[in-house]
Amino acid sequence: MSAKWTLTVDLDLCVNCHNCVLATKDEHIGNDFPGYSAAQSGAGVDTIRIDKHQRGSGTQVELTYVPRMCSHCDDAPCLKADSTGALRKRADGIVLLDPEKAHAPELEALCPFGMIRRDAGTGAAHLWSFDAHLLDAGWEMPRAVQACPTSALQCAKLDNDALAQRVARDGLEGFPGMEAAKPRVYYKNMRRLTHALVAGTVLQETDGRPDCAAGITVALHEDGKERARTVTNGFGEFAFAEIPPQADRIELRLSTPDGAEKTVPLELSHPHPVEIRL
């Protein structure tokens, strides 16, 4: 099996700088690449976009920035549904949209994941082409990867065995809901999207006033079994960031250095105890 291009996105490293978005626009706005992609207009089309996902609430919020683009799926629904002949998949795994056929009205609807988008200025449909024109000219990576300052985006040309090894080694996953399409864009640290964040602040009375309780042991229990534990920081804060979505009967068990204890039951639908008073 020949090697195919694969992109990995590390959600722990994306900082929402939008360099990938801007570099891709810089490459494609006003530039025709015959056989690869039509020139995009200044009105623009985001072939790469950054979605935002929030966990937590109150004073403890975690934002995750999620780059989204065409995943160049190996079993692409768009290719199966295409009757225009505009879409094709190359031997190296890259899916391209023929710029000569990009005005077909049905193209946007062919991708169930919303990754084929129409340029408001030209009316042409576009997808993220992996900058195939640059790779064919000898570049080692597309502009988006080159422009990423944190290495959140990385690419490689891998055969199936090498890809399977990397997926297992790095815990890579396709975007949720895309598994059947066999995407070639993989995400690392997907727990930031799929798992719950349980966080809060512990307070205790000091001279008749509530004060931040540092050094309190907080243990998270699921179905009576301890799954994780931590100690509150100087602000009395604690957080558990990897709670499986199917977790049931969650409770927090707090203990102070002098032996006092408190148990707080939680519902994952409302997982954030804004404050716990000892």
From TrEMBL:
Keywords on this record?
4Fe-4S, Electron transport, Iron, Iron-sulfur, Metal-binding, Plasmid, Repeat, Transport
According to the entry, every stretch annotated as the 4Fe-4S ferredoxin-type domain falls at 62-155
One of the record's GO molecular function terms: 4 iron, 4 sulfur cluster binding
Please tell me whether the keyword Glycosyltransferase is annotated for this protein.
no
Instruction: Check the record and name the InterPro entries matching this protein.
Output: 4Fe4S_Fe-S-bd (IPR017896), ET_IronSulfur_Cluster-Binding (IPR050954), Ig-like_fold (IPR013783)
| Record-linked Pfam families | Fer4_11
> Which domain of life does the UniProt lineage start with?
Bacteria
Decide whether keyword Metal-binding is in the record.
Answer: yes
Q: Name the PANTHER family for this protein.
A: ANAEROBIC DIMETHYL SULFOXIDE REDUCTASE CHAIN B-RELATED, PROTEIN NRFC
The name under which this protein is listed is Fe-S-cluster-containing hydrogenase subunit
Report the source organism.
Salipiger abyssi
